[in-house]
Amino acid sequence: MLAILAGAFLFLPGCGPEFDMNRGTTLGDNISPQSTWKIDSTDGGFVGLRQAIDGSPLTFAVTSRRYNNATITLDLGRPCVFNLVALRHGINENGFARRLSLSTSLDGKDYTSRYECVGTKKVTYIPILTPITARYIRIRASVPGSEAWSIAEIYLQ
């Protein structure tokens, strides 16, 4: 497998941005296909967890009403480069955690804390100032909201 070293980032074909050397532009997506992702959860009692990554904003995963410190862990299937995670809450726009934290890992064992943010109605955006290469993403609801946590889709960019 050919790897391209650009600055401090290692881009893998089909995962990192494919760069057109002749035009100086990026080609295609930089994230593995959502259909290949795996998802798991702890401490949230999620129902329909797979629906958070099924490609449809009309279906959703939802926790029980008590979900303090509930986590969702995504396995992207291979290391990917991204700098934004977005959680779409679907039909329950108030189904958001008041505070979230994001951690990433390359091996699924050692996680690095990356960002903490306030949850918001409809869509919660978790921006990361410097692009990250990671295979595993862990999102934790450190402060639950007033309603069950609802996630219709998880997007990476």
Summarize the structure.
With 157 residues, this protein is mainly β. Helices cover 0% and strands 50% of the residues.
Report on this model:
By secondary structure, the protein is mostly beta strands. The chain contains no helices and 12 strands. Strands 5, 7, 8, 9, 10 and 12 form a 6-stranded antiparallel beta sheet that branches. A two-stranded antiparallel sheet has the order 1-2. Strand 8 and strand 9 form a beta hairpin. It is globular and about 35 Å long. It starts with a strand and ends with a strand.
Oligomer: single chain
Q: How many strand segments?
A: 12
Report the sheet with the most strands, covering strand number, pairing sense and barrel closure: 6 strands, antiparallel
The helix fraction, in percent, is under 10%
The number of helices is 0
- Secondary-structure-based class equals mainly beta
End-to-end separation in angstroms reads 23 Å
Described by the principal axes of the CA atoms, the overall outline is: globular
Proportion of residues in β-strands: over 45%
pLDDT average, as an integer?
A: 81
Q: N-to-C SSE series?
A: EEEEEEEEEEEE
- What Rg is obtained from the alpha carbons, in whole angstroms? 16 Å
Low-confidence stretches: 1-28
Protein traits:
globular, 157 residues, two-stranded antiparallel ribbon, mainly beta, six-stranded antiparallel sheet
